[in-house]
Amino acid sequence: MKIQRSDLVLYGVAFLAAILAVGMVYGYVENRVAEAESRTEIKTVTVVEKPELRSVVVANREIYRGEPIEVDDIKVLMVPTEGVIANGVITQPDAVVGHVAKQHIFAGEWLIDQKVGLQEETENGVEAFLEKGMRAIRIPVSAESGLLGMLNPSDHVDVISVFESADGKRMISRTILQNIEVLSIGQTNRMGKMKKEQEQESAKNKQGEAFVKASMVALNVNTRQAEQLALAMNVGAIHLALRGPADVALVETDGVNVKVIERSKQRPPKYKPKQNREVIQIMQGDKVQEVITR
Fold it and tell me: Same domain for 86 and 188?
């Protein structure tokens, strides 16, 4: 049986069609596989060695400055040693339990030795906050001169002294100390709570003694500042001026006397008062527009 030329052409066309079909199917499958791989998330697992852990004492709640630290106030966490980069991190609970917080400690914060003071052994534990070379001095104040009712422990104040001049001819008012920290007010320590001893005294109707104690403010000063305060209390009256938390600048002042007050003129206001304006609401469909009239 002879294969005719037309049959060869037919077989060739069929062979080429088959190859083309196989190529198209292969390309389609490759595209689907590539599309599926692009949608599949490839997770890489990195195997590392177990890190060396270290115990760290952490505040279990917010601890206020001056508050004694109890067992329930802290907890111990195990953290990688490489993550402990701060110096003085406390690792044992026994190092802080029964001690006084020298600074405000937030919940979850790591405790460091610079924020923990001595154990609270005295009536109000003021000495636990005194740095080397600093002194605590108590000054008598009143509601007018000592900001009683406004002042809180850890606030900062300026001390103003009102005294008679050396020649006795005029009264002078001058700021003698600036940016001084308040340690305590009466029997109130930095926690802002009254001691049990004062509550017992008030229960025994010792109102006079309690009033005197409530009228005393303890300030954190150095030796030179303590001497200035002691002299100011003996030659005249002293007043406290409260500072803002962010205001730490020291201001140079020569003080004032009666003549300066008499000669001073009232300064005009910095800003002129704004004129009264009326607001008119205009409703357009579901929209409301406010128009200010001058």
Answer: no
